[in-house]
Request: fold
Amino acid sequence: MTKLTLASHPYMLGFEQLERLLERNAKTGNEGYPPFNIEQTSDYGYRITLAVAGFAEEDLSITVEDRQLVIRGRQNEADQGRIFLHRGIAARQFQRSFVLADGVEVGEAVMENGLLHVDLQRAKPEMVVQTIKIRRG
Reply:
């Protein structure tokens, strides 16, 4: 039995790159940390919010790599010399990746009350109608 994938469907032409992006994103190890929300803020606007309590702005990096929004966090180890009787607040690094569709641009990022907000804007699609002339062969 042949596996039917998005790129192999006969009506889906040119989606091979999208399928590769989805496969790569599935392998990045996006577990459940940090938790995040994705909301639609307007017809063409979105906001990703990550709960990054304990991280400072300089501990975070936001990049766009090959149509993927990548948010990384790495805290400085300032625990030397400290003795914890209980350690329930994890100081761990993370990486979250989000695949961006063509035409989606990353706007500003704002840190507020332990939440990192990243705004995205999708370009309004143009309605394009193209007439193809048929020539006699």
